[in-house]
Design goal:
Length: about 375
Amino acid sequence: MPEFEISRMRNSTVAYLYATRGEIDMSPSYQRQGAIWSIEKQQLLIDSLINSFDIPKIYLHQFPYPRTLDDGRKVRYALVDGQQRLEAIFGFLDGQFALASDFQLIEDLEIDMKGRTFLELVEQQPALVSLLNATNLDIVTIRTEDTELIEEMFSRLNEAVPLNAAEKRNAFGGPCPIAVRDLSNLAFFTRKLPFNNSRYRHYDLAAKFLYWEDQVLHAGPDDKPLRDVKKYRLDNFFREMKNTEAVLRVTGDQEAVTERADLLGKVFINSDFLLASIGMVSVYYLLAQRRALAGREFPHRSILLTFEQGRKLRRMADEDVLDRGEYFLLEFNRLAQSPNDGSALTFRLDVLDVYCTAIENGTDPIQAIETQLRTVDE
């Protein structure tokens, strides 16, 4: 059984934590992203501290020996739980925001501190600032060298917090979260996608890509790879890949995703509006996978642009006047509401592939869709 010791931090005043904040890794790999709290919520926390209200515990992973981060900084702790609270406290002391416009000091309502910054409080209310700096936070330290135990504790501490699926999977441990984090640094994610990684949207896409490659690379001769990427499937995949033997398997999956993402990175432009929908990014990826496995080239961006314009026109048309091929484009749009459903993904992939192939061959794409996909709704 690995060592696992929990204790209270002896010196946990606001002033001490602020002075030694450089010794805390605020963003270990399993953490959810910071900077999520609104200014109002940060102000409320500072209000609670000044007015001596209780705030929840903060958990730190205490290393047996200092560790060196990629930026060269030596740290003694990694933040397990309480990131938003510590960032709010440090932000207030750094002058990033002021007290709320309706702030009241409960002990003395005559003292006007509304909208004051920390520096203004230092000048106007030095005694109160001293009390704030001397306030002890409830800091729990965890001593262990087993990172998976820390990741498990992070997951349990956040069980009642509305973490999304990608944030929870990031804390699972094993090779999959590491692969996903590495993949999200590829140019396709950082440059081509027109949305950032807030709430781990890039991680969610990378997890799907990894799963789809694993389905293809490790399918049996009679197996049909699954495209369904609902939460329980991705969660099970991440859990199944936590054993030591899975490292090489996930490495192979990651290499396949990298190859596919590099290809897509050459097709799409920076912050491409064609990639604005996460659902469409998934369909483009599946098309890249299908065509690569068949030895076919991925369509030129101009063809994808033609498809995008064509499906938008059908979306605005009266359904009663659409022919069958056009109706399939309308159905393509409707199924965007089910971006993780396997059958919906396959239908949308088929429509896009047939449409692009027809344009590449110089034939009518609507007629091709009607001819080749007419059995879908029969």
